[in-house]
Amino acid sequence: MDQLSETAVTAIAALAQEAKTEIVIISLPSSVQGVPASIPVLLNRTNGSVSGIHNLVEPWRTRPERKIGTAAVATLESFVELVNRHRLSTSAIFAETDWQKPSLTAVIDYHAAAVPDNGKHRILYSFPQSEEWKVWTAVHGKAMDQASFAEFIEDHAHDLAAPDTLEEETFAKMFSAKVAFPNDLVVLSRGLQINAEVRVKNAIKLQSGESQIVFEEDHKNADGQPISVHGVFVINIPIFHGGEATRIPVRLRYKLRDGVIAWTFVLFRPDLYITEEVRRALEFAARETELPKFEGRPEMSGTSA
Length: 305
What we know:
This protein is an alpha+beta fold and 305 residues long. It is built from eight helices and 16 strands.
């Protein structure tokens, strides 16, 4: 018992004497796990009944009995700093790699190999998504009309990246499509804006891996030529707020029906990029805190292993 508990018990004992009760210490067998070897109880000398003193001691408490609750931090650096502030020899870090809800959780009072603990003191980092990632995943796989597509490209042209030689070769083979440079998409968006009110005559796939769209009226783009459509382009955006930018290939698809085109962006395997980022963060956190790391979720708070 700490000094506070001893003071409280002494004060309660004095009151108990006046009420013909006394605090006695009961020794417990070693086979009873998770409790002290002895505990104080209140003995009524009049009728011999015994009751706990927990409710009597609690009003005297000036600080919590143990650390509980979950602290939510906004950055990976804060996660590491706070874990280092509270870590114990049994603490552990868990990584949830679900790409839609990634997180790191440090369980400070985690179970030892042979001794269970409470698991109620935790630190959580939920990988806040960047604004750029939110924008692109919001349109992922969703059809857009011609005007909306052209407007989106112009509004987010700063996210477009020029493919390097390796990316150009790899993505061209992977997707059987020509890889676009940023200027290609800007030209495409402007050509679509010019022809916004014109029905499409046909759209053909060329051997080069790109497509051409021909409108029913005279071509209105600057060169008077059919508008070229590349099948893949690259964006370079941070996935998480404050994180480094990641280069991600995006498929560009369209469907033609009754002279109207519907456009679709499809990010290539966003789950892979999220998982890679989370695993890198897990490695960093484990290295900086010198704690064991696991992919998955810890037990529900309060349960034993």
